[in-house]
């Protein structure tokens, strides 16, 4: 596997970009290698600048559920491109995407488009505070909701990968209003509610956390969270930036039949272009400017290229059999990884829901919260990552992330991946 051009680019990059990357985990630091620089991608394959190709399970961290350069998305974006890239005025595509989202996601009666998941969660929290007149928010250890100040408390994803407890630059006064408690622990939730429910504007949760690796909610957990927040007039926010349109057209809320007050979306609804969205109950959403007093805006929000890609992506996802196909392939991959590990006597736990999964090393699971996840063997994950890269399989460069299967992965790709995992794990023994 050649790596000269990537290495040269990375050295140059480090001179002009902090850490050489525009988002921390991309630097591959925690898995002990330098990042390949991507030249292009097609379907489920990624090609780097050194002429290597990989089967891609990062899928741009979730958005590429159809695979790269899906023809329907490409032609939609090309058509939009020819009409102009940004106007700062309303366009029909924004309405079309919003209509689709409101039709498909059970909790969303009205939706506002933004440019990233971070903007969506940040704005949803402001809205919940404006709506309730309360200041505090509850989040869960190991959940990641983007990089806005309020959320950088015991956060997952890159914050966990780099072992950063919070972040310098975030004023204490701001995080003093963020209460972080363990996921899947109703006693911890009850204790917080008993003490300070009247000050809590919102609970924000990834209904299936994926930023500490994939963790499943215990039976009844989300239902109880819903029941208690409703009783206490606390706004329940599902951060479905990953699970939205990943677990089905209605996301995790439809999957579990638990309907939050507000929902944050991103990734898939932009089909690989920059997008985020937050939406929910009409009475809450009507608090947003210009309808109401809670301010939130964006020069590029509802961008024509992003909305074109989003609509086209949802079009394809709405075809019959899509999620069944994703489920079958992901299930086979999970089985394959488990049986390879069992054959080689490697202790690990693969946790999966739909087309997202994480193999935690050094534990036989179940991994139910951040502490469990942190006690997994990240060195071993790093070694596995490097061996898989040698085998032309592109996994997330951190234990605390998910692997995503796309519609572009065919059976041969899945079987090749399982065979590669065998070779990679054999090196770990
Ligand atoms: N919420 C969740 C659940 C996420 O996984 C992410 C990003 N991985 C975000 C919010 C932030 O999204 P973005 O990176 O687009 O700002």
Automatic annotation (TrEMBL):
Q: In which pathway does it act?
A: Porphyrin-containing compound metabolism; protoporphyrin-IX biosynthesis; 5-aminolevulinate from L-glutamyl-tRNA(Glu): step 2/2
Question: Which coenzyme or cofactor does it need?
Answer: pyridoxal 5'-phosphate
Pfam families this protein is in? Aminotran_3
Single Gene Ontology MF annotation? transaminase activity
Which organism is this entry from?
Dissulfuribacter thermophilus
Q: Name the catalysed reactions.
A: (S)-4-amino-5-oxopentanoate = 5-aminolevulinate
Give the protein name, as stated in the record.
Answer: Glutamate-1-semialdehyde 2,1-aminomutase
Which GO biological process annotations does it have? protoporphyrinogen IX biosynthetic process
């Amino acid at each position: 596997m050649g790596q000269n051009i990537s290495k040269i680019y990375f050295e140059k990059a480090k001179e002009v970009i902090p850490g050489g990357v525009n988002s921390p985990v991309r630097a591959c630091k925690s898995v002990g290698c330098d990042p390949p620089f991507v030249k292009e991608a097609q379907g489920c394959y990624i090609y780097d600048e050194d002429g290597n190709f990989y089967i891609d399970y990062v899928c741009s961290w979730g958005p590429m559920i159809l695979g790269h350069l899906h023809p329907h998305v490409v032609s939609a974006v090309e058509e939009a491109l020819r009409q102009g890239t940004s106007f700062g005025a309303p366009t029909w595509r924004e309405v079309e995407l919003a209509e689709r989202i409101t039709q498909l996601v059970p909790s969303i009666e009205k939706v506002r488009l933004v440019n990233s998941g971070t903007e969506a969660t940040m704005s949803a929290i402001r809205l919940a505070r404006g709506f309730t007149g309360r200041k505090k928010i509850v989040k869960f250890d190991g959940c990641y909701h983007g990089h806005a100040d309020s959320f950088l408390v015991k956060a997952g994803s890159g914050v966990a990968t780099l072992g950063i407890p919070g972040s310098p630059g975030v004023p204490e006064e701001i995080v003093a209003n963020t209460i972080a408690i363990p996921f899947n622990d109703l006693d911890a939730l009850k204790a917080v509610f008993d003490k300070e429910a009247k000050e809590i504007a919102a609970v924000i949760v990834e209904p299936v956390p994926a930023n500490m690796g994939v963790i499943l909610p215990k039976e009844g957990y989300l239902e109880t969270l819903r029941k208690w927040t409703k009783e206490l007039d606390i706004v329940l926010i599902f951060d479905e930036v990953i699970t939205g349109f990943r677990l089905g057209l209605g996301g995790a809320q439809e999957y579990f039949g638990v309907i939050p007050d507000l929902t944050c979306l991103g990734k898939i609804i932009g089909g690989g272009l920059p997008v985020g969205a937050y939406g929910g109950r009409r009475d809450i959403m009507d608090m947003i400017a210009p309808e109401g007093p809670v301010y939130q805006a964006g020069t590029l929000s509802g961008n024509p290229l992003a909305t074109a890609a989003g609509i086209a992506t949802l079009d394809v996802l709405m075809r019959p059999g899509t999620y069944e196909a994703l489920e079958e392939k992901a299930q086979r991959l999970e089985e394959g990884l488990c049986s390879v590990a069992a054959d080689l006597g490697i202790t690990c736990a693969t946790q999966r829901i739909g087309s997202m999964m994480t193999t935690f090393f050094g534990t036989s699971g179940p991994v139910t919260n951040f502490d469990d996840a942190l006690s997994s063997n990240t060195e071993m994950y790093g070694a596995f990552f490097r061996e898989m890269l040698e085998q032309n399989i592109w996994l997330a460069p951190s234990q605390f992330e998910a692997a995503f299967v796309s519609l572009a992965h065919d059976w041969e790709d899945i079987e090749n991946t399982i065979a590669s995992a065998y070779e990679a794990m054999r090196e770990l023994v």
